[in-house]
Amino acid sequence: MPPAPGDREARRKDVSEAVWRVLAEKGFGGLTLRAVAAAMGVSTGMLMHYFPTKRALVAHALDLLETRTAERPRRERPVEGLAALRAMLLDILPLGPDDTARNRIWVSSWDLALADEALGSDQAARYARLRSTLRPHVEAARAIGELPPDADAERLAAASVAFVHGLVVQALFDPDRFPADVQIAMVDGFVASLASYPSPS
């Protein structure tokens, strides 16, 4: 018998917490209905009232990951320009245990998203939203003279995302070579280089 509406809402938080525990321990590769049910101490049959398919479970996990990422603690954000862009890039990096765990989960999700057209479209939309949050700071940097007047804000926002996620991957796979201080120094170098980033011809 499906849970009553009130019970369903009451248990939704418990389900999400169990999904997050499985993600943190095993990544998306270990995310199964059986694993989440075990984390909750319930049957897979009960869990299927929430997630009738593995794909529904994965979609929920991706939404949960995006929400947890958006709600994570942030460093103080300068008002505008390249300093604000720098702060946003630093917030993405695996500079501490929680950020490292979250980035591991994100990276583990890529294979699933690449294999599923709908999930892939959702991921593409998430990246578009990330670029859109960076772009105003690039535009502000251009307006206050930190960047050339012909700097392409959309292109620089995309370059910033590509840079920071490339650094995330390197730091996850080789943390001894890319500790926090090295990551921060590399972000500083990248941000400084934006003033000479080639504009479209």
Question: How does this structure look, described?
Answer:
The protein has 201 residues and is an all-alpha fold. The protein contains nine helices and no strands.
Task: Summarize this entry quickly.
Helix content is about 70%, strand content about 0%. The chain has about 200 residues and is mostly helical.
Low-confidence stretches: none
Overall, the morphology is elongated
Approximate helicity band? over 70%
N→C terminal distance: 64 Å
- How many separate helices? 9
Please state roughly what percent of the residues sit in beta strands, choosing from under 5%, 5-15%, 15-25%, 25-35%, 35-45% or over 45%: under 5%
Q: Quick one: biggest sheet?
A: none
How many β-strands, per DSSP? 0
What structural class is derived from the secondary structure elements?
A: mainly alpha
Q: Averaged pLDDT, please?
A: 88
What value does the Rg take, in angstroms?
A: 20 Å
Q: Would you list the SSEs in sequence order as H and E?
A: HHHHHHHHH
SSE diagram, text form:
Layout: H1 5-26, H2 33-40, H3 44-47, H4 54-70, H5 81-92, H6 97-115, H7 117-143, H8 153-173, H9 180-193
Task: Jot down its keywords.
201 residues, mainly alpha, 9 helices, 72% helix
